[in-house]
Amino acid sequence: MKFLAEYRDGDVARRLLDAIAGTVTRPWTLMEVCGGQTHAIVKYSLDELVAPGIELLHGPGCPVCVTSLEMLDRAHALASRPGVILCSFGDMLRVPGSRGDLLGLKAQGADVRVVYSPLDAVELARKHPDRRVVFFAVGFETTAPANATAVWLARRERLRNFAMLVSHVLVPPVLTAILQAPGNRVQAFLGPGHVCTVMGEAEYEPIVRRYRTPIVISGFEPVDLLAGILAAARQLEAGEARVENAYRRAVRREGNPGARRLLDEVFDVCDRKWRGVGTIPKSGFRLRYEYRDFDAERVFELNDIETAEPAECISGQVLKGLKKPAECPAFGTRCTPQTPLGATMVSGEGACAAYYNYGRGGR
């Protein structure tokens, strides 16, 4: 495929692997932030091909995986209400809540619909003025502009039967939380390319300065990732720490100014609870006061919900880079994509799903 095959070129990959091996003189621990990067690394066995001194940890960059159990249970509560159409992307339907998943609710008669864009949910609100349409808005900064567009459009059209359950999370605060955590081993990050196409580079610079930790913005193909690993290794070996853009074909330093203006208009920054991680200050988006009439938590007066996380699930430790999926006793037995204990096994970007799908972990 044009503009893709060159980023999977075996000769280029071998040269990069040789360059990494020739650079590394001591052990280094890197964390790829994005779940899409994790799947590519595991699919192409890049973590096994790189120099023995490089260890790759899997980070918290799977938006489905880190959506809090409380927020998922709120979505279930909304879907169970008469007259409500709950709209979601398909990858949220199999994620287990305290009492099952959205797909199970749909099978029981709840009106849960898979959409391909938040604008599809806006269109449903137009077509069904007698129903309440709620869009379950999850994701990092990558999906936030499209969701902001949907609620901005609903407000402009005065679609009072449209609401949004917002569970957006932000990357920089979770990187800080990882670096501050007891037992942290991360010495450099492969930064999330898709997020940076929206937000740019600048917000990572304070993290680099404070913690002296390189952040190399990387893409998602094998050559992209190996180039990012090489850049990080060179910084570490030289005792340097800076934000480096190894994904220039997609990321500009300033990001996408138009998208950022829209985010500032629609959302405020707030504290957010991350599944398996806990509450991280100023790590999420919520709707601004001007958009309060479209905030599902306010409109439906959702109260605190008692949650129940499976005790044996170690997905929180996987998301923080403390353990690998195969270290979970339930991996591949009691926890599979068909019977997931945690979101990291069922999400298309989850580390546990990557290990399971590509035969890692000895199952």
Automatic annotation (TrEMBL):
Keyword terms of this UniProt record: Iron, Metal-binding
Signal peptide, first to last residue: none
Molecular function terms, GO-annotated: 4 iron, 4 sulfur cluster binding; carbon monoxide binding; iron ion binding
Gene Ontology BP term (one): protein maturation
Assigned protein family: Belongs to the HypD family.
Name listed for the protein in its UniProt record: Hydrogenase expression/formation protein HypD
Organism listed in the record: Nannocystis exedens
